[in-house]
Amino acid sequence: MKAIVSNCTHGGSICTSLLFDPAGRPLGVAKSSTGEGIVNLRQEVDGWKWYNSRTEIKVECEVERDDPDYMLVKIGFIPGRMYSLRDGIINNAEPLFQIVKHYANVWSEYSGRENAPLHGDLALTNAIFVGPQPVFIDWEHFLPSGPPLGFDAVYMLYLSLWFEGWGERFEKHSIEFIGKMLAYLWVRQCLDPSLAVSPLRAIRKIIFDHPAWWGPQAKKLPPLLFSDEAVFHLDRHINTMTRLEDLIGPGK
Question: What is the DSSP track for 197-247?
Answer without folding.
Answer: SSHHHHHHHHHHH-GGGTGGGGGG-GGGGS-HHHHHHHHHHHHHHH-HHHH
